[in-house]
Amino acid sequence: MHGAEHLLEIFYLLLAAQVMAFLFRRLNQPVVIGEVLAGVLVGPALLGLVHEGEVLEFLAELGAIFLLFMVGLETRLKDILAVGKEAFLVAVLGVAFPFVGGYLYGLQIGFQTLPALFLGTSLVATSVGITARVLQELGVLSRPYARIILGAAVIDDVLGLMVLAVVNGVAKTGQVEMGAILKLVLLSVAFVGLAVLLSTWVARLPLERLPVGSPLGFALALGVGMAALAASIGLAPIVGAFLGGMLLSEVREKYRLEEPVFAIEGFLAPLFFAMVGVRLELAALASPVVLAAGAVVTLIAILGKILGGFLGALTQGVRSAFTVGVGMAPRGEVGLIVAALGLSAGAVNEEEYAIVLFMVAFTTLFAPFALKPLIPWAEAGLKGAKE
Amino acid sequence: MHGAEHLLEIFYLLLAAQVMAFLFRRLNQPVVIGEVLAGVLVGPALLGLVHEGEVLEFLAELGAIFLLFMVGLETRLKDILAVGKEAFLVAVLGVAFPFVGGYLYGLQIGFQTLPALFLGTSLVATSVGITARVLQELGVLSRPYARIILGAAVIDDVLGLMVLAVVNGVAKTGQVEMGAILKLVLLSVAFVGLAVLLSTWVARLPLERLPVGSPLGFALALGVGMAALAASIGLAPIVGAFLGGMLLSEVREKYRLEEPVFAIEGFLAPLFFAMVGVRLELAALASPVVLAAGAVVTLIAILGKILGGFLGALTQGVRSAFTVGVGMAPRGEVGLIVAALGLSAGAVNEEEYAIVLFMVAFTTLFAPFALKPLIPWAEAGLKGAKE
């Protein structure tokens, strides 16, 4: 019965997440942070009851996928397109500022060109899961600033993939491989474009007439399939899941997709956030160099996204624009993958990897704490503008 | 992005299960068989799109756990206790007949004592998942025969564990290790007893006052926790999940537990049944000896459980008693684990393992096909008795 240990680990994660969610709600703090800290508590850093491993990592990834699939279900394409210009600007500026900032800071503290490029690249990609959860928790997913964040996160992921391809190509062959990058760009633009085109078609598709067991069953397969397709191109699976959800957003009420998907998310998403905590190697961060450089890099990462979001979404008013920037701040797995690629290419050492780890941890913790007071402030601004 | 291939595999499994469920419903055949055959279709035997692996196996196990957790939620302890005597008899007889039958047949076709004992042991444990799904699909979980099957499945699992411990002890040390077996019996009886005792207490527990995020979150943790506890004793995780669900059955309406758990089951349980199909190594069965002996062993396995069920549940009338026997017929993972233990102890060879595999496959396929007409017949009998 090989599954026993994983079942026990999931039990610890669920229980700890439940208790921490209770505490954080009581303390009027973001519940999602409680779930992350639940993972720190039961993980190797403290109690040692739960360890990283393929099975738990995959369950966590499924949790993020269902979270973004659910968010996609609640997002209509036309609402995203309505803020498309802002989302595009936010994504481009939010990629450019942290990349340049990270690169220049790397040079300044004595990195070679290549490690500095990797540092910049690791600051590029927003990990929108934690922001999506906070927006969902506060019930503001339908607001313009939330739509901008979601749209920008999709574009940001494509841009991040391109930057990574360039830097990785330089690291491996010393030059920019235009062919490979063009292929990547075409593939990812085609994927997003296909999802957009399909969305009007799926909205009119009578799912009950498809040769499937149930519309819900088809919807779940579609969500997982889009996540798989995104992942096989190199995009984040959650971006695929989000697009898959958006495909179905026009028919979500007709087929009652929301409640079941929300239930699956409710089971799996806390595992995702708790595993963020489990992965947090606190010991790796406990060096003065890592702490000092990590703090500066975190600041660059946050300010870069805030500036990008602010400038890109200024049409929505100062408060919304600022909220967009903060919402784009969390970095996640992609930042770590970039640093790990640099590590395996010999361009980045363990200490530089730890700096990125620090940045990922603190941008992730920062956003929910900052969004919690920011969102009511932005909401008040939106109301003021209407009156 | 290591998760891409697993996401793709899940997509294939979900989609194939959906299409096969559609076909089997159209053909008025058991949907669950369609799901199993979906796994055969996309698995190594045919298309080769999906392969066995730790991640998918674990997701499948979670699917079985949520299936039985859901069934437990719909089962009140007092309904099981009301048919407790029958359930106990069904379990004891349904363990004894196939064990003796398998042992004697093994001797007859020339097995040594030990391999024959392993063959008998592999026929012991009912795998109640597929029967539970059929009962759920037909909406008859509340009927006395369904209660007897569920109660008997729990006792059957404890008995099966005991038989395995005896035979495994004999294989390893040549003698029956009374101490180890006594410990096992005490542990498993204590576990089931504890669940029974707790159930009145949990029914009165105000879950909304516990320091947890939500009653549902607590319920999910409890279900997984009970499955983990059962697994760590050596019982089937699904037995723990069933008892966990039963613990909460009195409060399922108060806290609206059913719909979310049903949604999670709806996502994961098809993966469980499809993975049964993926694991089906058709090639291993394609030998005349395996086919001939496999057919006889399958017959012993089915008739042994039918006889046990029939004699044990005769108080409920002939039709219900027969249905109980058929419902107990499916064997699963435990049978394969027994054969694999025999294999690793050198007491069983590859061909004998394949015979058990054959038996597991065909008892699993047999039950849904047989139950589909049997249940209306038993229902008609129950109505007739009332009039």
Summarize this entry quickly.
Two copies of one chain form a homodimer. Chain A is mainly alpha-helical and 387 residues long.
Description:
The structure is a homodimer of 387-residue chains. With 387 residues, chain A is mostly helical. Chain A contains 17 helices and no strands. The first copy, chain A, is globular and about 60 Å long. Chains A and B meet through helix 1, helix 3, helix 10 and helix 12 of A and helix 1, helix 3, helix 10 and helix 12 of B.
Q: What are the SSEs and their pairings?
A:
Two copies of one chain form a homodimer.
Chain A: H1 4-26, H2 31-42, H3 54-73, H4 77-82, H5 84-108, H6 113-122, H7 129-137, H8 144-173, H9 178-204, H10 215-233, H11 237-247, H12 258-279, H13 282-285, H14 288-312, H15 318-327, H16 333-344, H17 350-386
SSE series of chain A: HHHHHHHHHHHHHHHHH
Largest interface: A-B, 54 and 53 residues
Largest sheet of chain A: none
Helix content of chain A: over 70%
Q: Which oligomeric form is depicted? A: homodimer
Radius of gyration of chain A, whole Å:
20 Å
Discrete helix count of chain A: 17
Beta content of chain A: under 5%
Would you count the extended β strands of chain A for me?
Answer: 0
Class inferred from helices and paired strands of chain A = mainly alpha
First-last Cα distance of chain A: 63 Å
Compute the average pLDDT of chain A.
93
Shape of chain A: globular
List segments of chain A where confidence is low: pLDDT < 50 over at least 5 consecutive residues: none
